[in-house]
Amino acid sequence: MDIINIFVEDKSGNRQHIEIPTDINLNLMEVLKASEYPVLGTCGGMALCATCHVEVLEGDNLNPPQDQELDMLDTLPAITSGSRLACQIPVRENINGIVVKVLTE
Ligand code: FES
Question: Could you report the per-residue pLDDT of 30-53, keeping only the tens digit for each?
Answer without folding.
Answer: 999 999 999 999 999 999 999 999
